[in-house]
Design goal:
seven-stranded mixed sheet, 11 strands, mainly beta, four-stranded antiparallel sheet
Length: 123
């Protein structure tokens, strides 16, 4: 079992910023991403980064959220700026292993390793 641990969530006012961190063996995975799960809604892809450094974002979030990783620190980050109430959700770090099927970088079906989540509340 590979355990991912998210941190950095909290409560902020609209327009505020947060940086989420995921403690993970980043170099061990071909692709990692951030997902969020608003209460009462389905889990959705937020951002992802793959082995060649390419990044992918949900269309509505591009320009506000930035994904990055630091393999030397075993960290995956999600910088969230200009937060809005609709960003309120549990945010999860996820990782892809090579044996998994591929449904795209923002599909939860492409990932099999998940963290426990960190809550972000914007109000």
């Amino acid at each position: 079992h590979v355990q991912l641990v998210e941190s950095g969530g909290g409560s902020v006012q609209p327009g505020g910023s947060l940086r989420l961190s995921c403690a993970a063996p980043v170099a061990s995975f071909y692709c990692m991403g951030w997902f969020r799960h608003p209460q009462g809604k389905e889990r959705e892809g937020v951002a992802a980064t793959d082995a060649d450094g390419s990044t992918h974002y949900a269309h509505s979030l591009k320009g506000r959220f930035t994904i990055s990783q630091d393999s030397s620190k075993n960290r995956l980050y999600l910088q969230m700026d200009n937060l809005k109430p609709e960003d309120t959700a549990m945010y999860y770090c996820a990782a892809r292993r090579g044996a998994l099927g591929w449904d795209g970088p923002l599909s939860k079906a492409s990932y099999s390793v998940w963290g426990q989540g960190t809550q972000v509340t914007v109000s």
